[in-house]
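Hi all, long-time lurker, first post. I run a small reading group and we've been trying to get comfortable going from sequence to structure in the token notation. Rather than ask abstract questions, I figured I'd post a concrete chain and ask someone more experienced to write out its structure so we can walk through it together at our next meeting. Sequence below, copied exactly:
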Amino acid sequence: MKTVTVTLIFLIILAAANTLSAADWERHTIDPASGIDHRSGADGIRPADINGDGLIDFVTGWEQGNAIRFCLNPGPEKVKEPWEATTVAKVTSAEDAVFADLDGDGVLDVITATEGKRRTVFVSWAPNEQERITDSTAWKTSAFPETKNKQWWMYTLPLDVDLDGDIDLLLGSKSSGASLTWLENPGHKRARTLTAWETHRLFDVGWIMSLRLLEENGKRNVVFSDRKGLHSGVFLLPLLQEEPWFGKPVCIGAPNEEVMFLDLAYLDDDEKLDVVAAIRPRGIKILYQPDKPLSLWEDTADLDPIPEGKFGEAKAVRVGDLDGDAIPDFAITCEHADGKKRGVLWSNVFSEYFPISNERGVKFDRIELIDLDADGDLDLVTCEEKTGLGVIWFENPLH
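-- Answer (accepted) --
Happy to help. Here is the structure in token form:
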């Protein structure tokens, strides 16, 4: 009976995967590149509901352009059309842009991390009046003085580090002198006085790709991926309940590998979050959380290498049930997807790889999985930096 049941489950999963793999994922543009506005190189998407309508919006930094823009979700009926977009800052070399309410006024601000010649972290203060958030002139952008020309800032995680009720910033950088740095908020009343923010260099890193908060059983940890250097890998950084607020980072997997973007997800039935990481050039690594998180996590179920001739090199991975079989799937984006190679794909539990995108696009980035068209399946949102696709989403053809 057990063999029959397992076989039946296998056939159901395989049928669902085959149905989805045989269909085309239609690409829709959220915010296109624009030569007229000097807008190119869309680099990363970060989600939040900025206007309080219950729909997820996205903010993006245009690295090779001169714009930090958020796009307002128009709702399922108009989601396939270009979204209303607002430029909140004209900043070059943007590597990351993220929403966070730093001054406690109830409106989300935008924080931008830059590399290259800029090497500075900026905040774009939102107008206090919610109805003015789409007015570009109402946004005011300033640089955090302590970050100016200091490091190649790559990724920002907003969180309340010291549990005092305001949002701090955890900053990751790359290249010479790179670090993980805590930018401490002086409090809501003084938040807009940027000279009052204190920087705390926590430790040296090589190239931070991901910073994710893992909260379970009353404990907080930051999971991060370090792509380069002598100590590359996936790390767990404990957050403490009192000073010094941070414990010692521990490598939990993929030591000395080039780890790109990662995701946290429940992959088995132990009710503990696991880690899935894209490993350059063609790996997808799965790390199962052990009973003692501050130790090496179990690595027993990596996916097969991404086929070299068909797809680009692994950039990001996101976990979600794409084919409706109630089993986690893996959405993947790639860079170096030139020629006839595809840059967006997905895999099921059997390690088969199915294309999502066509041959257009070379360098894709972070992934969000969300049902944008409200048809009951997860769609894929990302951006493409090299060939002008901009901020885009792929429509899941399941329903």
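A couple of things your group might point at:
The first helix runs from residue 2 to 21.
Helices lie at 2-21.
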